[in-house]
Design goal:
The complex is a heterodimer of chains A (about 400) and B (about 200). Chain A has a single domain (about 15-370), classed as Formate dehydrogenase/DMSO reductase fold, CATH 1.20.1630.10. Chain A is mainly α. Chain A is globular. Chain A is built from 15 helices and 1 strand. With about 200 residues, chain B is an alpha+beta fold. Chain B is about 25% helix and about 25% strand. Chain B is built from 8 helices and 10 strands. Chain B has helices spanning about 20-30, 65-70, 95-100, 120-125, 130-135, 155-160, 185, 190-195; strands at about 5-10, 35-45, 50-60, 75-80, 85, 105-110, 115, 140-145, 165, 175-180. Chain B has a 4-stranded mixed beta sheet. In chain B, about 50% of the residues are buried. Classes of the chains: A mainly alpha (about 400), B alpha+beta (about 200). Strand 1 (about 5) of chain A pairs antiparallel with strand 2 of chain B. Bound molecules: iron/sulfur cluster (2 copies). One iron/sulfur cluster (SF4) binds near residues 76, 86, 96 and 97 of chain B. One iron/sulfur cluster (SF4) binds near residues 60 and 84 of chain B.
Chain lengths: ~400, ~200
Amino acid sequence: MITVHFFDVPHEIYWGLLIALYFYYTGMSAGSFILTSLGTVFGIEKYKKVSKVGVIMAIVLLLFAPLHLLFDLSQPGRFINLFTHVNLTSAMSWGVYLLILYPACLMIYAWFLFRQDFVKGLNQGGFKASLYRFLLFGKTDMSEASKENDKKQAKFFGTLGVPLALAVHGYTGFILGNVQARAIWHTPLMPIIFLMSAMVSGTGLFIIVLMLVEKFKFGRLNEDIKALIADIANLMKWFIVVDGALMIIYFIVLWYSSESGYAAGYFLLHNEGWSFLGLENILGMLVPLLILLSKKARQSLPAVVIASVLTIIGVLAMRINLVIGGQKLPLTGSKIVEYVTSGQDIAIVLGIALAVIVVLSFLYSVLPMNRPGAQERAEIQGNKTIPTTKGVAQ
Amino acid sequence: MGKRYAMVIDLRKCVGCHACEVACKSENNVPLGVNRSWVEELETGKFPNVSRHRLPRLCNHCENPSCLNVCPVKATYQLEDGTVLVDYERCIGCKYCIAACPYDARFINRERKTAEKCTYCHDRVAAGLLPACVNTCIGGARYFGDLNDPQSEVAKLLATEAVTVSKPETNNRPQTYYIRADEKALRPNLLNIVGGGK
Ligand code: SF4
Ligand code: SF4
């Protein structure tokens, strides 16, 4: 039947790039934290080396993530209302508390990871020493008992951090999943899909950050780190497998659901094909998976870097496809709703990304990033006779 | 029993003049480019078998409003009489309500910088007047009143006519009842829009 709408009013897409980026950042924060908690929390010894790199990255990503939201508000000055008025039926309201608890927990956890290194760094003088003194809050006790306590507390707060990380990103899945008006969002899989893709992109970004930190801090990538990266790449492979499986399940059920579900599936395949199939699923998932299937590739740094970059791009595309694509399907009327990215939004996104890079570089350069197994350089340079850093990250 | 306001729109009487849309704009000072109340029009079929349909739309003042459920600061609230309102002093402009309303009823008022939508002309109704759209409708197609009062026009129409609502499956329980609305106007024909139809 031919139907022609000849009068209709235009509607607008209100949740754009900034919201997609917010989901993306919290995801990478949760993903990188969960990955690096494998050492402290789950006791997998080799991951203890990288807990410190991971926790700093997770904290910084999470502190900057909500800025996207803040800039997206029409009344940014009123954000305080989020704290003074709670609505238990709103997933966004749940998030407010998670966005405070999670980074707070991570900061305490990080403090216990770093405390002994701060104490050791006190005698070097200069800016770093004053910074460490400040950060120590007077807790310079280096007795066995207090070291034991550091370990215990780090484990406690790290363990608490894992469910919080799951929640802080899972809740963003509920923000979309709870919206029954839009078939493309309204699925119980949404929080899990968000979490799994966050593991993928968080791991991808972590690998790259880890390489950079090691390179700048220690001048080269040690064999043990290379082996660990191969190991992480192997994990990333499995994350991609699970994420891909979830995506396939999501899509099949969407296809066979209501008319709007089917239309959404069709829309993703055809109208958004290059981005959904091309960027998100082929380039962002299939290609890195194929690369990482080979053991040889997992041991080759360039191959792992390529795979990591691809997953980071792929998951970004996924967030954009879901958040913005989901609103392109009209709820009334007769037209696809068009989205145009505003120059202001792009400037904000780039500005925040730049700020994250600057802050991360600053923190990695001033914080004591030494780790078990990395004391060789100090030995080579002869400033210390006996390495004392063993086990600090535990 | 308290009041429960609702609207009934009899499409047999709607002439498609858009006067309601204009009255709403001027009554509520609605900025350009956005609408609290509007009329969709469509034509279906092929000559000589054709028909033309209209569908006035506005906020449905749902019994279970998704906009209210998702608002993180409870800026969207519902009165005893069912009217769903936005507290313009409290709204932070997060736009979650806009994303969650199944009826495109909401938008951001760029001058006030908050979410906004039809209020059933709350001030007019409180003063004993009818909403501007109902007041102005030249076909007399729009009825507004209290569903809990069996003598009200809306209650009588609901009792005597076959009515439909837009997207009953949403569990929003929308309170705009249409008499003789065409199914093709009540929801977007997605398969036509994105493709994928046979
Ligand atoms: S129509 Fe939309 S804005 Fe109006 S009450 Fe229902 S959900 Fe809320
Ligand atoms: S835009 Fe305003 S009314 Fe809508 S959900 Fe956000 S705070 Fe509530």
